[in-house]
Amino acid sequence: METTRREVSTPEAVEEPMKILLINPTRCDSGGRPIKFRKAFIPPLSLAIFAALTPSCHEVVIVNDIVEEIDFDAHWDLVGITVMTIQAARAYQIADRFRAKGTKVIMGGMHPTAQPDESGKHADAVVIGEAEELWEGILADAGAGRLKPVYRAEKLPALEQAIVPAWDRMNLNIYARPWKHRMGIMPLFTTRGCPMGCRFCTVTQYFGKTYRSKTVEHVLEEVDKTGAREYFFVDDNIVCRPEYSRELFRALAPKRIRWFSQVSTTILKNPDLIDLAARSGCYSLFVGIESINKHSLAGVKKHFNNVEAYEELFARLRKAKIVAFPSIMFGFDGDTLEQFEETVEFLVRNKVSIAAFWILTPYPGTAVHEEMQKDGRIRQRDWTYYNGSQVVFEPKNFSEQQLTDHFWRSCADFYSPSRVARRIAGSFFEARHPLLHFLQTIFFQTQFRSNVLSRNHVFAGGFGHRA
């Protein structure tokens, strides 16, 4: 099946070309100062998609505020900002500064979708939900000077048409590159949504309880036109539909790329997918195990996680030479103080070499936030603190200070110097590309250890913090 890039025509309502600035904001520290890095990890996929959807008569510039500086003095006809909750404070700073000059600002993303009234105080227009089907109309309204305060799609975007992100509209040199690679790790999605409905997760709230997929042909076209050797498939659960995943993995195998993505523990219901993923170039999978406590999992409707099967899952991934990257969350109502140490011991015992620890964060729009708000347990409403490593609510079985202290102690224990050294030494035997994995292991293990020492989350947003 032959596919072509989606053609975008210029709406008649747009009388003149516009200069459009699309921004991925960084986050702020507790003093309201933007946090900057020397290198970013992954380019912002959503902005590259909207640049591709923009009619060619307009000039589009994409700025990643995590690394780059924003030119507030230049003339822009429209500024678009994508916002997650942790980025909200910085996004509002940026928007307020542009609006003070009379520049029109539009905001979209997960946070404006969950908090449209709040976001609307800082923007001329707010987009609720997915915006692909709305974008041309928004540009037409902006060009005609008739932006509406709120845009909401009547239907979910169709994924049948191929849209190749406009990577040429951004500076790709600011992203870390794997050894000997011409490009960095490039993002791409094959599916959208997750039907699981975990009570702490923003995905269902944003995408609806749906699961949609691109055609495999379009995925292959995007890989070919992007031209990278390594990809992050940003899907929330790339194996939710096993038959689609089998077709995708078999089609990717001849491309000889390397990739990582996210899966749920339910992949064990179709273990052949692990081997197929490995043969297609998968080298790591981020797995939301969240907890080793059954009561904690049940309390957030993650009962489909079978704690007794974790060991088998890690063993199968290890045998396929796929590095398991589990996500661990502390602070559930069913958690105990003993659980912190037990969790680290469990991971070490199962030869897990990399893990992301989080403090439960009641993000706006989620069931957990709604429940805690109702019970008066939300203690912090400054979005700057909603970063996964600070306590913003009243825990049930221990104090806020105990949760904070035990969280950082667990991070330090897991990424201790002796364990980091052992992982680096043993990394040659973990993956299909020993030398590359060895170099990446050195980089990430030392980076994560450094972040823990400075009490920055392992996913701090970039590499090389700039004062």
Set out the fold topology.
Layout: E1 19-24, E2 36-40, H1 45-53, E3 59-64, E4 78-82, H2 88-100, E5 104-108, H3 110-114, H4 116-120, E6 125-128, H5 135-143, E7 150-152, E8 186-188, E9 191-192, H6 203-207, E10 212-213, H7 216-226, E11 230-233, H8 242-252, E12 258-263, H9 272-279, E13 282-290, H10 294-299, H11 310-319, E14 323-330, H12 338-349, E15 356-359, H13 367-374, H14 400-414, H15 417-426, H16 434-453, E16 462-466
Parallel strand pairs: 1-3, 1-4, 4-5, 5-6, 6-7, 8-11, 11-12, 12-13, 13-14, 14-15
Antiparallel strand pairs: 2-16, 9-10
Kindly list the characteristics that best describe this protein:
467 residues, alpha/beta, Rossmann fold, pyruvate-formate lyase- activating enzyme, 6-stranded parallel sheet, globular, disordered N terminus
Written account of the structure:
This protein is α/β, with parallel strands linked by helices and 467 residues long. It has two domains: 19-152, Rossmann fold, CATH 3.40.50; 176-466, tm_1862 like domain (pyruvate-formate lyase- activating enzyme). 34% of the residues lie in helices and 16% in strands. It has 16 helices and 16 strands. The chain has a six-stranded parallel beta sheet, with helices on both faces. A six-stranded parallel beta sheet has the order 8-11-12-13-14-15. A two-stranded antiparallel sheet has the order 2-16. Helix 8 (242-252) runs parallel beside helix 9, helix 12 (338-349) runs parallel beside helix 14 (400-414) and helix 15 (417-426) runs antiparallel to helix 16. The protein is globular, with a radius of gyration of 22 Å.
